[in-house]
Amino acid sequence: QVCYFPSPCVVSAQRQVTVQEGPLYRTEGSHITIWCNVSGFQGPSEQNFQWSIYLPSAPEREVQIVSTIDPSFPYAIYTQRVRTGKIYVERIQGNSALLHITELQARDAGEYECHTPNTDERYFGSYSAKMNLIVIPDSLQATATPQTLQKVEQDSLELTCDVATETSQHSHLSVTWYRQRAGEKPVEVISLSRDFVLHSSSEYAQRQTLGEVRLDKLGETTFRLTVYHLQTSDQGEFYCEAAEWIQDPDKSWYPMTLKRSEGTVVNVQPTDKEFSVRLETDRRLYTVGDPVEFRCILEAQNIPDRYFAVSWAFNSSLIASLGPNAVPVLNSEFAQRESRGQLKVSKESDSVFVLKIYHLRQEDSGKYNCRVTEREKTVTGEFIDKESKRPKNIPIIVLPLKSSISVEVTSNASTILEGENLHFSCSVRTADRAQGRFSVIWQLLDRRNRRSNIMWLDRDGTVQPGSSYWERSSFGGIQMEQVQPNSFTLGIFNSRKEDEGQYECHVTEWVRAVDGEWQIVGERRASTPVSITALETGFAVTAISRTPGVTYSESFDLQCIIKPHYPSWVPVSVTWRFQPVGTIEFHNLVTFTRDGGVQWGERSASFRTRTAIEKAESSNNVRLSISRASDTEAGKYQCVAELWRKNHNSTWTRLAERTSNLLEIRVLQPGNKSHLPLLQSFLPKSALNSTVCLGGRSVLEQERSRAGIVRDGIFHRWLDDVRLKLSQAQGNITVLETQRVELECVVLNRTSGASRLSVEWHVWKPNHPERETVARLSREATFHYGEQVAKNHWKGRLHLESPSLGVYRLIIQNTAVQDSGTYNCLVEEWLLSPSDVWYKRAEDSSGQTIVTVLRPDATLQVDTVVPNVTVPEKSPFQLDCNILSRSSQDSRFAVAWYALRTKAGGKKGNALEDEEIERKAMLSVGPDAIFGPEGNHWEGRLRFQRLSPVLYRLTVLQADPSDTGNYSCRVEEWLSNPQKEWYRLTEEESGPIGIQVLDTGSTLQSIICANDALFYFVFFYPFPIFGILIITILLVRFKSRNSSKNSEGKNGVPLLWIKEPHLNYSPTCLEPPVLSIHPGTID
C-alpha cells in the first residue's frame, strides 16, 4: 500500500461474527429465535447488533429490521412490529444476542444478516454473517370428539385422537394425552415422543409399567388412549396435544408447531371406602446439604368428605403428626429444625402429605415412613380412630460432602510474539450436579519459579487483580470473566516478555453448611505453559538501492529492509536520513511513524513534491522513491528503524533502534545537451512573466524568433495573455433566521490548467468598515476558518464545496442575524516553478452579494375581549391569559399579571382632577419558568396554572372588597437564536379584566361581636349598674315605710321581699340581651 502525504494509510484489525446455521424451517405464526455471536473484537465488551433481511424477491437489496443501537434502523415494513415488541433483540451477553420474531409471517422468509458495527482500531475479519429462514404453512391438526363420559371405578376408558400434517419437509410428530382438573395444572397421562418412545408422568408411570395405561396407533393418523381399572383420581378432562418437530442443521430438534384437541370430560364414581397409602421419594442416595422430599399419597374415594390423620416417623421415632385440621405437631428435636426453616411438614392436597428436609445432615440417614389413620367424627364432635395403614419404609443414605470436580486449562497459543494477546479458559467439570460455588485464582509461575497471583474471583463473583497486576487491570490490560457457571476466562492483552511462564488455574469448591456458613469441599488446579518471543529478538535493518547512479530528471528507489518479518500490528517507525554532498551532517528527510503517519523533516521541502514513501502492507519494509533527480538529491542516505511497544497506560516504550548501512547516490549530468537541467527564475510584477535559461545556446537561437527575445544575454519568454477572471455578478439574498444561504464564486478563466487556486471569502458587516475573513480554501484544498470564527459563531455552520471545475460554493447553515453583510470571494492562482516552488500568478475578486438575515415576524396576539366578573367576598376568582397566536412553535412566553388602579392627581386650583392608571405587579413568570415575587397585597393568595402551552391562569384566593378593580396580563414572546441564546421578540398586553367583589355588609350583631370593648359595654356593664340602682330604690322605699305609722303594705300585707329582675341573655351575640321586670317586683 502506497501512502502519499498527507493522505493517511489504512491499518487493520481482527473480528469474527457467527450466526445460527441455516436453513431453518419454521411455521407461520410460530415464535422463532436466531442467535448471533461476535468474537475477536476490540473496544467495549458490550457490542451492538443490527439485523437485516434479503427477500427472495430482491436478493440483492438489504431490508433493515432491528438494531440494538439505532431506534430508527428498521424499514417501514418492520417499524410497527418492532415498536409493538413483536420483533426484538434479546442480549444474552455483551457479545451475543438473540433475534426474536414472535408471530412469524410468510413474508419473513429470506436470508437474514447479522451485522456488528465496528469498534476496532482497524479492520480485519468478518463483521457480518448470514443464514436462511424458510417459512412453511402450519398444517398440523389434532382433532377429537368432545363428549362427557360417566364411569365407575375399575371401568376401562378408551379415547381416540386424529393427528395429521401436510408438511412437505421431513418432520416427526409427538402425541401426548393430558388429564386436567379445574384449578389444577395438566397431568401427563402418556406420551409418544418424536423418537417413538412412550413415557408417562410420575402419577401414571407405575400404571403404564403394569399395562393399565396404553397408547396405540391405529392406521396413519389415529392414536388411541386406553386406561384400565379407572380410579377416582382419573376423573377430569382428557385431551391430546400434538407437536410437529423438525431437525435443524445443528442436529437439534425444534418443535415447529403445537396443537391441542377438544377435551372429553370423564366422571368416575367411587365403589367403596377402602383406602391405600404409598410413600414416594426421588432417590435413596443423598449428600450432606441436599434437600429431600417424602410424599405420603393417600388413595381413597371421596377424600374431601372423610377425615384422615397422618404421622411421620424416622427410625420408628415420631417426627410429626397432622390431625384432620392439617396442623402439624413436631417433637422437640425436629421442632427446632422446623423453626429454623430446615424442615417442613405440610398437607399439599387432600390426598398428598409432604415431609421436606431442606438441608440433610449425615445423621439423617435411616428409614422414613408415614402412617395414615382414618377417623370418624361423632355427633359430639370427637374423633374416633378407625382403620390405620402405613406403606413400606424408605431408607435413605446421606453421604458426607466430597468434591467431584476436575479442572482443565486451555489457551489460544503456547508460543506467541510479545504484544500479542493471550486468552486462557478454565473449565470445571463435575461428576454430578453443581453443589455450591467456585472461587478461582489465576497464577503465573515464571522461569525463576516465582508464583504471583494475576486475578482471582471469589465465590460471590467479585473479581480482584493481584498486587503486581493492579495497574494493568485498571487500564483493561488484564481481564477475567465468568462466562458460564463452570467456565472462567483470563485475557492478557498486549503481552510482555515477563508474562512468559506456567499459567495455573486454582479452583476451590464451596458449599453452604446447614448453619448457613460456607465451607471448602475441595480444591483442584491445572496449568498450561506459554512461551513469549521478545520483539527485539533478531531486529536488524538494511538499506539497498538498485540505482546508485542516476542522471538528471531520472528517478531512483531506496529500500529499507527490516528483519525479522513482523506482523502489521507491531509498531515500527522508519526514518530516512540524508547527508547532502559536501556536508558532514545528516538530517531527517522523512519518517514513517509508528502509527502509520508520515512526517517530513524540517529541511525536506525540496523533496516533498517529488518523493513517494511506500510501506509494504505485509511487512514493515519502507521504500523511498524520488523522481526528477537533481544535484540537491545527491549524497548519502541512511535508514533508521525504531521498534516500539505500546504500554497498558497508552504510553510508548522504545524497545530497540537499528541503523542501516550508508547508501551513496550520485546524480550525473547527461551527456546530451537536449537533456541539460532546466533552471527558471521569475521577475515579480513585470510584463515578462518568466525567464528560462538553458545550458546550450543553440536551443536559444532556434527558439528566439517565435518565443521571445534575448536581453543582457538572457532569453526572455512571454506567456500568452491569459488572465484569471471571476464572475462579477451582483446579488441580493434575504432569508429568515436558521435558514441556509448559498454563495457562489465562479472562475470564468485561468492562466493555466495546471495551476492551483486558493479561495478566500470575505464579508463587510453593517456599521463595520473593516473586512472580515469568513473562510479560506488553500491551494492544497485545505479548509480554514477566518479569524473571526469564534466571534461570529461560524464554526460548524460553514461548508465549502466545489460542485464543478471553477465553481466554489460557500454554504452558511443555520443563519443568524449577525451573519448579515456584503460577501465576496478572492481567488489567488498559483503556479509551480521548475524548481518546485509555488508562486502566486494572479488574483481577482468576484462581485458582491448582499445577504440580509431577518428574524421572524412578530404575530403574537393575546385575547383582548375578556368579560367582567363579579364574585362574592372570600371566594376565589380567576385571571386567564389566553394567547391566540404565536410567532413560532418553538417560542417561550414570559407572563405577568397587573392590577390596574386609578389614582387621582392634578394641580392646585383646578376643579377637575386628572386620573392616572397605576399598575401594581401581582406575579410574573419568566420564559425559563422562574417565578418573580408576589405582590404584597396578594402574598399567599395566588395560585399559578399553565393549562396549555398558550393558556395561563392566575387564581386569587380569599377575595377581598379591596380586590375590586381592573386586571390585565402582559405576555412577552422569546425565541432562541442559532447560538441557543434567548431574546425577546415582542410583547402584548390583554384587555382589562373587571373584577367586582361583593361586600356582604355589616349587621348590628357583627359590629358588636367584632369589637370586645363594645361587646362588654352592651352586654356586661349594664347588669351590675341596673342591679345597684334597683337595690338603692328598694332600700329607700323600705326605710320610708318603716318611718310611717302603720308600716304596712298597700293591702295590709308587709312587703318583706322583692323579686329579682329576670334577664334574657343570648351568648351567641346574635341578639342584644333583654331586660324584663315582671309585675310585682316593684310596686
Automatic annotation (TrEMBL):
Main location per UniProt? membrane
Statement: the UniProt record of this protein carries the keyword Repeat: yes
Does this UniProt record's set of keywords contain Iron-sulfur?
no
Q: How does it sit in the membrane?
A: Single-pass type I membrane protein
Question: Where does the Ig-like domain start and stop, copy by copy?
Answer: 8-132, 137-242, 270-380, 395-533, 553-656, 724-828, 856-986
Annotated membrane-spanning segments are 1013-1036
Which keywords appear in this protein's UniProt record, sorted alphabetically? Disulfide bond, Immunoglobulin domain, Membrane, Repeat, Signal, Transmembrane, Transmembrane helix
InterPro entries listed in its UniProt record: Ig-like_dom (IPR007110), Ig-like_dom_sf (IPR036179), Ig-like_fold (IPR013783), Ig_sub (IPR003599), Ig_sub2 (IPR003598), Ig_V-set (IPR013106), IgSF_V-set/TM_domain (IPR051102)
Naming one, the record's GO cellular component terms include: membrane
Localization per record: Membrane
A Pfam family found in this protein is: V-set
Looking at the record's lineage, which domain of life comes first? Eukaryota
Question: PANTHER family, alphabetically?
Answer: IMMUNOGLOBULIN SUPERFAMILY MEMBER 3 (PTHR12207:SF21), V-SET AND TRANSMEMBRANE DOMAIN-CONTAINING PROTEIN (PTHR12207)
The identity of this protein, by name, is Immunoglobulin superfamily member 3
Organism, as annotated: Monodelphis domestica (Gray short-tailed opossum)
The opening ranks of the lineage are: Eukaryota, Metazoa, Chordata, Craniata, Vertebrata
